[in-house]
Amino acid sequence: MTFAEWVNTTFDGSSKAAAAHLGLLHRTVYSYYALERFPRPTQCQIILLKSENKIDLEKWQQAFSNKKNKKVNA
C-alpha cells in the first residue's frame, strides 16, 4: 500500500492524526500524502518502521513518479 492508502486505512484519511503518530509536522505529512514531496531515505525508514512495514515503498515511489510525470507531460 502507498503512504496515502495507509493514512486512509489507519487514520480514516486524517493526515493530522498520521502526523501525530509519526512525530512529524502536519504540513510535511500532508505533502507526502498529496504526493507533493517524497521523503528522504532516513524519513522513509522512520515511516516504514512506524507503519509496521505496511507501506510498500516502491509502490509509493511509483505513485509519486507517476504524478510528477503527469505534470511534466501536461
Protein described:
The structure is a single chain. The protein is mostly helical and 74 residues long. The chain is built from 5 helices and no strands. It has helices at 3-11, 15-22, 26-33, 41-50, 57-73. Helix 2 crosses helix 3 (26-33). The mean pLDDT is 95.
Number of helices: 5
Secondary-structure element string:
HHHHH
Low-confidence stretches: none
Report the end-to-end length measured between terminal Cα atoms.
27 Å
The average pLDDT is: 95
Number of strands: 0
Strand content: under 5%
Largest sheet: none
Tell me the Rg in angstroms: 12 Å
Structural class: mainly alpha
Helix content: over 70%
Overall form = globular
Supply the key terms:
globular, 74 residues, mainly alpha, 5 helices, single chain
Task: Write the SSE topology.
Blueprint (H helix, E strand, L loop, with lengths): L2 H9 L3 H8 L3 H8 L7 H10 L6 H17 L1
Helix pairs in contact: 2-3
